[in-house]
Design goal:
eight-stranded antiparallel β-sheet; 22 strands; alpha+beta
């Protein structure tokens, strides 16, 4: 019986630990007495940064199209198709279409017409400059007219790339040959007219002039003899008046003949020479035009101008045996870059030359440098409002950052969208910092914190704030001493705090992280 009593006594003691009364259960479920939530003041470096997203690609991408209007039929790719990743140099053959090369030359203007004799414009100057950059003479670089110097430079270009220059129409060659023959005939006609004029200008031979002078002397002597007879005339021997008239007429005729022999009329011969010279000028101009028509042209389908060279081939749309249509390939520069967009407020914090980082697949940081900042696109805010589902980087200002990637990372990041962080402000080393939730605003707008003393009491302390980022703000006491490890109140326990104590405004030039 004693054993049984002891057993039940022990059993009762054990069961008493598991049996709870309703009052006890209610008391245990009641919340604890509320108290302040505190965090220690930290010493840390505060850095503000702009965070964006961007795409990794090679710089200055360009889609290349061919002008095939003068091909005269289907433009078939027959060879020399570039590979993705290959590099196009100035003067290289980028593609072969219908057995003819497509040559890459440096220039800002795209190809829009065939360059041949008689064509003038800035594209001709561009061609001259491109040939000169390859060391090929092209005449006067300031001239905008396609002439024999440019044509010879084009022929040298084709010889350099290993192709025959473009063929000349046989009709043009025949026309040039005919024009040369007509030029020679016109030149011979001018020479003949010149000889005739020289002969006419020389006048009568000297023997004829002597005979005419003798005839005058004889006529005068005869006239004198007849006149003397008439002076001594008698009725028996009257004056021979008919002989006198005849002698006078012979003298007048002799004098007239001599005068005519001394006067040379070359008007007809001069007119003939002028006409022959005019015909020669026309023949020379026609021959020049015919010769120029046979100068080597540069077909629009056989050249591509790119603003800067060399270029890297990014994509290829042409295939051997296919018909040229659309973009035959796209090219870009040789430098890698990250292209992103920044909002107007973020753009104010950025500057060219600023250093940032992107995140590698393994989580490490890769250094990037801002190389270009664009203007904020007009209407960006409206676009965001109209399309709230779109990400912020779809509108704003263009930001270009240079980056260098190791070969093993290039394949992983090229063409990918990455996170970009650019520090824009930082404290000079470690400073005292508190969470933004620990800051409150005083009656005068000053910043305050609630400091917990060693005895458990709290004290409101005015502070001066500095840079704010990542949920923390730099603080320094105005009339008290602060040290790392001191406890400050955060949350609803802080007096004078608004909803949740989430004010992120700093008074003395501090900037909220603002989610950057």
């Amino acid at each position: 019986m004693a054993g049984i009593a002891i057993f039940f006594l022990l059993l009762g003691l054990v069961l008493s630990h598991f049996l709870v009364s309703p009052g006890k259960a209610a008391a245990d479920a009641a919340p604890p007495v509320p108290g302040p939530i505190t965090v220690p003041i930290e010493r840390k470096t505060i850095a503000n940064e702009v965070v964006m997203r961007g795409d990794v690609a090679y710089d200055d991408p360009v889609a290349v199209r061919l002008e095939t209007g003068d091909v005269g039929g289907p433009a078939v790719v027959t060879g020399h198709v570039p590979m993705v990743g290959s590099v196009l140099e100035a003067g290289a053959v980028a593609l072969e279409v219908n057995g003819r090369p497509v040559i890459v030359l440096p220039g800002d203007l795209p190809t829009y017409r065939t360059l041949r004799t008689g064509v003038s414009g800035p594209d001709v100057r561009q061609l001259r400059a491109a040939l000169a950059s390859l060391g090929i003479p092209a005449g006067d670089l300031a001239s905008s007219t396609y002439d024999a110097d440019v044509a010879e430079g084009v022929r040298a270009l084709y010889r350099r790339v290993g192709y025959e220059p473009p063929l000349i129409d046989s009709d043009l060659i025949d026309a040039a040959k005919q024009a040369r023959q007509e030029l020679r005939a016109a030149s011979d006609a001018v020479a003949s007219a010149q000889r005739a004029l020289a002969s006419a200008a020389a006048g009568k031979p000297r023997s004829e002039l002597i005979a005419l002078d003798t005839a005058i002397l004889v006529a005068r002597a005869t006239l004198s003899s007849v006149q003397a007879g008439c002076s001594a005339a008698t009725p028996e021997e009257p004056c021979d008046e008919a002989g006198l008239l005849r002698a006078q007429g012979d003298l007048d005729a002799a004098l007239a003949a001599r005068q005519e022999a001394g006067t040379v009329d070359t008007s007809a011969d001069s007119a003939a020479l002028t006409s022959a010279q005019a015909a020669l000028a026309d023949a020379r101009e026609a021959a020049l035009e015919a010769e120029n028509a046979t100068l080597t042209p540069l077909p629009s389908s056989e050249v591509v101008f790119l603003a800067s060279l060399p270029r890297r081939v990014d994509t290829v749309g042409a295939v051997r045996g296919g018909i040229v249509s659309g973009d035959v390939f796209t090219v870009s520069g040789a430098n890698l870059e990250v292209r992103a967009k920044a909002s107007g407020s973020d753009l104010e914090l950025l500057q060219v030359g600023a250093i940032g980082s992107i995140e590698a697949p393994d989580g490490s940081d890769i250094r990037v440098t801002i190389t270009q900042l664009g203007d904020v696109e007009s209407g960006a805010a409206e676009e965001v409002e109209d399309k709230p589902s779109e990400s912020p980087q779809e509108s704003g200002a263009n930001v270009v950052l240079g980056v260098t990637l190791q070969p093993e990372l290039l394949g992983q990041l090229l063409g990918k969208n990455v996170r970009i962080s650019v520090p824009v402000e930082s404290t000079d080393g470690d400073v005292l910092a508190v969470p933004l939730a620990a800051l409150t605003a005083g009656p005068g707008g000053q910043s305050r914190i609630e400091l917990v003393r060693a005895d458990g009491s709290t004290e409101i302390v005015d502070v001066q704030t500095g840079l704010a980022a990542d949920g923390f703000a730099e603080v320094s006491a105005v009339d008290a001493e602060l040290a790392a490890g001191d406890l400050v109140v955060v949350g609803a326990g802080a007096p004078g705090r608004g909803l949740g104590g989430t004010s992120a405004t700093t008074n003395d030039g501090g900037k909220s992280a603002g989610g950057r």
